[in-house]
Each structure stands twice: as C-alpha cells, then as structure tokens.
Amino acid sequence: MKSFPEQVSTEVLLLAFLYTLAAFAVIVVILGLGLIDMGLVRRRNVLDTWVQKITAAMIGGVGTLLGGYAIWQWSFNQAFGVPDPLRTAVKDWWIAGSLASTPAVHIDPKIAPEADVLQVFLVFFVTFSMAAMALIHTGVVERAKARPLYIMSFVVGAVLSPLVGYLCWGSVSPLTNRGVHDFDGVFPLYVFAGTWVLVMAWRIGPRLGAFTPHASGAKPVPHNVGFVAAGVLLITFAAPFVALGSGYAVPGKGFFGISYTESGFGLVVTNVIAGLIGGGLMGAAIAYKRREPSWTFLGPIAGMVINGTLFDVGTPLKCLLVGLLGPLVGLGTTAVLRRLRIDEPKVLPLAFGPGIVGAILTGFIAWGTPTGGFPGLEGEYALGHAVITPWWQLVGVLAAMATAGIPCLIMCLVFERFGGLRVSEETEVIGLDAAHWGTTNFGDDLDPPAIPVPGEGAAVHVAPQPVGSAG
C-alpha cells in the first residue's frame, strides 16, 4: 500500500494531538455536568441520574460515529465540487468508511490533506454530540423515562446536532457563507440543546412539588450543592481546551476561528478566562444579593456561554464585560421560566438564554468582520467574502431552534401517545434508584418506601443496598 509521509509530519501530529486534547476535554465537561446534577437532584435519584446521563451520551456519540460526522463533511464536499457530495461524505466518513478507517499515512493528501487531523475531528464531533445529550438530560432529570430519552439520543447524534453544525458551524457551512458566525459550538450545542430542553421540559412537566405542594411531601430538594462547585471547576478547566479545538491551527500562518476568522491561541485563551471571570463576579454578586449561593457556582458557566460566539473575534475587555451580562440573562430567563411554570433551573438559564443573547450580541460587537470561505477557493466560497451581522446571527439562532424544536415536539407527542415520556408518580415519589435498580447510591438510606414492580401496579418493599453489594 502506498505511503504518504507528509500525512504524518511532526506538524500534523502536533495538530492531531491538539484536537485530541480538545475532544477529550469535552468528556471532562460531561463529568462536570454530571457532578452538577448529582448535587442538585434528590438523594434517591443520584445513581439513576448518572446511569441515564452516561447512557444517553454514549448513544448520542455512536449516532455521530455511525454517520453524523459525514453530514458536516458534506459542506466541504460541496465547496470543493465533489460529485454527489452527501453520498460521498457518508461513504468516506461513516464508522467503516474509507477515510475514517484507514491509517492517515496511506491516505492521498490530494483526497484528504492532514487526514490524521480530520480523523481526530471526527472524535471531536462525537464528544460534542455526547455533550449535547448530557446537557439535554440535565434539563429533564428525576422524571424522564429512559427509553424515549435514549431514542432521542440516537436521532440527535446521528442527524440533528450534526445538521446544525452543517448549517452554522464551519467555514463553508451554508449559513456561515452568508454571515452567520459561531466559534465555540453555541448553535449546535447550547442553542440546539436548550431548545430541545425547552420543548421537552414543557411536555414532560415539572417535578413533583416544584411549584405546588404534593400530597406525598415530595419536592426537588438538592442533595449537596457543594458538588455543583466541583462540576463548575471541572468545566472551567476544560473550557480553554475545547475552545482551542474550535478553530484552524495553520502552521506558519496562525490560528483562525472555525469560520476562518482571524484570531490567535493566546487571544482565545485570554478571552475564555475573561468571560469566565466576568460571569463568576456577577454570579457572586447575585448570590449575595439574593442569598442564593448556587449563582456563585453557575455564574462562570453563564459568562462562558454568552461569549461562545465572541471568543475568536473579541478582546479580553469585551469578553469580560459581556461575561458580566451572562448571569443577568440567566436570572431573567429563570424569572420567565417560573412565570411559565417550566421546571428547568440549569440548562435554559445558563445555556439557552445566554447562548441566544450572546450570539446576537456578537453580531453587533463584530459587525462587518470578514468570515466564511476557505483558502484557495473563489466565488461563493472565497475566503472572507461574508461579514458578521446581527440579522444573520438571528437567522442562525432560528435555524438551530427550528432544527431542534420541531423534531423534539413531534417525538414528544409520539411518545406521549405510546407509553409516555415521564415515570409514574409512584416511581418519582419513591426515587428512581430504588424503583429502577433496587438499590441506592448511599448505604445509609434505610427508609425505603414501597417500590413498584416492573408493571408499576403492585408494590414490593426492597431494602436499598449500597452500590456494588450482592443481593
């Protein structure tokens, strides 16, 4: 088999390592989300929360691995004039495709230059889909049935999240070439997942006791808010690495955003920390003002998300100031949700609201900045032929929301008709750990109520066991 040593040069391998680090930093973000949920769910739901989150993430990931990544590569095949661009992308980049499963040294650079980097970028997309499902699960913890969630996970990973990436995230993506600008995956992650959560949380309803007292006394009481702090710090650690994976590192020429906007390694990292600090400071101010300590922990995330489209084209001062707005937007989103009686205190205030506001705000801050295209191409794909504008940012937001909201509503209505989205009231009162697994994450939970049998009719009493115990 013919070899192409330029495909495994030191420069290419270093780039591949950068994107590998970025891809697995997304796994750290998922861990952070899990810890946040662990701290905020009821004690009796901790084990099932982890099981659902990890399983949903894995199913979303395998969907992207099986073919979702090809949807994003479709845009490059279109730009470079590849015949039958979607079919060719699927043939090349599904899990057993020729480019996905061949060592880079044996791939002709005329077909796929820097093939190692493209293969690692496949992993980056897989972990992004995993994060999207972890985020969606966060929005419906303690009450969602596993089966509908897992079916949704596959559809999201295989088609829908990559489709938003195809439309809005990439230098030759259709909407990018008209002026839509993204950098840190705000459209395919925060706006998409946030819209999905909004629809699903509306259809599935609030947790028992969330807005009105329940006869059983059940209510969504956090187990240990300290876990939230640990989760946020992990996400804060991972954020700069994820951001650096959201662009092009071109040896000898510099670092560019994913839409080929001019930027820099150091600038992006500084912008990320400035946004996190801005959000953290405002979050702490809100926490002391309202005597709600969770805003101290969640403020940095809101500051990061609201800057997600700005990190590559902003400055540290701008990102700091915009970061200060993040928790304020989150606080306003929370007030609206409470008025609408939608029980979702995390994803919508921290990802959906700040993600949308930040995306549109970037249209004003970076108005007129060249974006889109690819080096060496001409015409509609010429480098920098489009410019960032607020109205195209709004188009990107609406496209991401439609791609998530319409399919989610359809799937919710189908599941409501056939089996339901939500666990039974009895199961929710008992706790999902004991009801689903006959055990508990905590060995000192010694007051088990009746646990429904699989048909959720008759009930039996089962003494909770510590995780890993026999019997």
From TrEMBL:
Coiled coil: none annotated. Pfam families: Ammonium_transp. Gene3D superfamilies: Ammonium transporter AmtB like domains. The chain crosses the membrane at residues 12-33, 54-72, 117-136, 148-167, 187-204, 225-244, 264-288, 295-314, 320-340, 347-367, 391-415. One of its GO terms (biological process) is ammonium homeostasis. The keyword Membrane applies. It comes from the Bacteria. Its main location: membrane. The keyword Transcription does not apply. This is Ammonium transporter.
